[in-house]
Design goal:
- The protein is α+β, with helices and mostly antiparallel strands.
- The chain has a 4-stranded antiparallel sheet, with helices on one face.
- It has helices spanning 2-5, 16-50, 53-69, 71-93, 97-106, 133-148, and strands spanning 113-119, 123-130, 153-164, 169-178.
């Protein structure tokens, strides 16, 4: 009765011989891997033992000890170097107001004097005074012509015009936007 319950057909029954062949094959693979790993380990050990690595490590340690003696001085040098680099980037990125002011002063007649200067992100505000209305007109005309040709300025705006009767002078405030 037990023979009728078996789910394997008689031709599919395993024999002991194929299983022993597979086991032998796995043993050969395991031994070859063991030999490969051990030979690679021996080669690496010999390379490390015969290499100049320990002397290089000793030299590195002595160099680190020498540097650690000068640590405060080196730290100060690194801080100064970092600040110089930062200031250099700030100088290259900031707007050059001195150039704009020089261009404004070039357009100014001799009888006109600057009483106030204000600068912000994109414009320069200049307040000038003069006792002659003709010299103020000349100054404004010079700035407007420079803005019209887009030579030095992109926009000139008259923001304030006052008269000072006590000093007998005229005061003009102008906003100039540089290129």
């Amino acid at each position: 009765m037990n023979k009728g319950i078996n789910l394997l057909r008689p031709e599919e029954r395993l024999t002991v011989k194929p299983a022993s062949l597979r086991l032998g094959f796995l043993r050969v693979i395991a031994l070859s891997l063991l030999f490969g790993v051990s030979s690679i380990s021996i080669v690496l050990f010999l390379l490390i033992a015969l290499s100049p690595l320990p002397t290089l490590q000793n030299q590195e340690q002595s160099a680190l000890n020498a540097i650690s003696k000068f640590h405060p001085d080196i730290a100060k040098l690194f801080i100064v170097d970092d600040r110089l680099k930062s200031s250099q980037t700030i100088l290259t990125q900031r707007k050059r107001f001195d150039v704009s002011l020089n261009k404004i002063l070039e357009k100014m007649p001799g009888s006109v004097s600057v009483t106030a200067v204000s600068m912000n992100k994109d414009k320069v505000s200049v307040t000038v005074s003069s006792q002659s209305l003709a010299s103020i007109k000349s100054f404004i005309d010079n700035l407007v012509s420079a803005a019209d040709t887009k030579k030095d300025f992109s926009k000139v705006t008259l923001t304030n015009f006052l008269t000072d009767e006590t000093h007998n002078s005229y005061i003009v405030s102008i906003d100039v936007v540089s290129l």
